[in-house]
Amino acid sequence: MQWRQARGGLGIRPPVHDLREIVNAILYVARTGMAWEYLPHDFPPAKTVYDYYAKWEKDGTTARIHDLLRSRVREALGRDAQPSAAVLDAQSVKRLAM
What we know:
This protein is mainly alpha-helical and 98 residues long. It has a domain at 17-76. The protein has 4 helices and no strands. Helix 2 (19-32) crosses helix 3. The relative contact order is 0.07. InterPro entries: IS402-like_dom (IPR025161). This is Insertion element IS402-like domain-containing protein. It comes from Paractinoplanes ferrugineus.
C-alpha cells in the first residue's frame, strides 16, 4: 500500500507491459528475422518492443545479458566462463576487371 501511494505521489506509472513479454517479443524477432511491424498481436505493440530494444542496445543491457548467459552456458558445460580463444573466418572473392 505504501509503495503504491509513494509511486503515485512521485508520478511513477506502473508498467503497462510485462518485461518478460517485451523480451519474448525481442527474441521472437531475432529468431524469425521478421520486421518489427509484423510482430504478432499477442505480443506488446511493435513500437513499444522496439523502443525497449533500442534503449537496451544503446545502454549496453543486451550485451551484458548476452555475456551473462554465455558464461552460464559455458560453466554448465564444464568450461571456463570466459572463452580463451576465437576463430575468425573470412572469404574473399576476386573481381574481374571490366
